[in-house]
Amino acid sequence: MSVLDATLSADDRVIADTAAAFAAKRIAPHALAWDAEKHFPAEELREAAELGMAAIYCSEEFGGSGLTRLDGVRIFTELAAADPTTAAFLSIHNMATWMVDCYGTAEQRATWVPRMASMECIASYCLTEPSAGSDAAALRTRADRDGDDFVLNGVKQFISGAGTSDVYIVMARTGGDGPKGISTFIVENGTPGLSFGAQEKKMGWHAQPTAAVVFDDVRVPAANMVGGDAGEGTGFRIAMNGLNGGRINIAACSLGGAQDAMARTRRYLREREAFGGSLIDEPTIRFALADMAIDLEASRLMLWNAAAALDADHPDKVTSCAMAKRFVTERCFSVADQALQLHGGYGYLHDYGLEKIVRDLRVNRILEGTNEIMRMVIGRAIAKENP
């Protein structure tokens, strides 16, 4: 337990404990099987939604939980300790739900947020394209006005939930080049012209589907533009603000996975005997554990700080979230990798769970903005500071 846990109120503890208990009962026992079978746990996700975990920091007006970003970080950490993949998908769904709740019209919020909060409608976030990954402002998917509709054409790549989700939050170009020409749309699955690519064969995240989303003259009511007519041209800002939360959530998923790797390693080293004693009594092993513990605590501090900055709408919130995303996903991947190393050959076996954690955490250094982009964001902020 971290010293930070001592700062939690009784209500804070209930929130974290509820997430931990749910994760231990409904996710952890199945995580390895879901990974091996490439099973998407929709039923368990909807059970999490019943506990308020699908609209964590959305307003209570339309079914959200009304919690803070810091609450969200603690929830995703607990869920990821059971399965980083399931936690990460729920993070993406929360990001999409928040975008509608925060930027949608009253009618859009009333129509969609309750269904997304219950996960009656599972949501996907559609920004990345084959030729517009890190340079998201260069996206090419178009949405052209045609009477009371917009007609969408283009392709989104690497979309979690593609083909399975019920609704897609899509960034598309309604104007000229650059970020100011982008708007956001709510697109329902089953809309004519909407199709999906083959499921990607991935290194990790096997328990959630990932594919391209293809728009071929997909006709969407103009009423489905997030924010209504006033939302035209605001899509890039909506997407980036959504990513601030997405970055700390995915960092929390790295922290939870690394914490589980650390716990597994302590148990293993206590039980494993070599050179006439328990491995955990070897000085070099203890040095490695010390470094891992330091990385976990530093990650937790930076992550909680970034969440607090987002909650407070601090002027440095974007930089804080970028710093946390970059640092936590790097250091926690290193912790998981070291945990595998300390297991020796057993760490490489699926049944021990370490190799899955390593595979699942590796992608967190890429998505929600690569860590190289995080350095650009941070560096740009530093350059703007007054001497």
Proportion of β residues? 5-15%
Q: Portion of residues in helices?
A: 40-55%
Low-confidence stretches: none
Rg computed from alpha carbons, rounded to a whole number of angstroms: 21 Å
Number of helices: 11
In spatial order, strands of the major sheet run 2-3-7-6
User: Alpha-carbon distance between the termini?
Assistant: 40 Å
Series of secondary-structure elements, N-terminal to C-terminal? HHHHHHEEEEEEEHEEHHHH
Query: Helix- and strand-based class?
Result: alpha+beta
**Rough outline:** globular
Mean pLDDT reading: 95
Largest sheet: 4 strands, antiparallel
Q: Oligomeric state of the chains?
A: single chain
Beta strand count? 9
Describe the structure.
It is a single chain. With 387 residues, the chain is an alpha+beta fold. It is built from 11 helices and 9 strands. It has helices at residues 10-27, 31-37, 42-50, 69-82, 84-103, 106-117, 235-271, 283-311, 317-342, 354-362, 371-384, and strands spanning 123-126, 142-146, 149-160, 167-173, 182-188, 194-196, 210-221, 273-274, 277-278. The longest helix is centred in the middle third of the chain and has 37 residues, at 235-271. The chain starts with 9 loop residues before the first helix and ends with a helix.
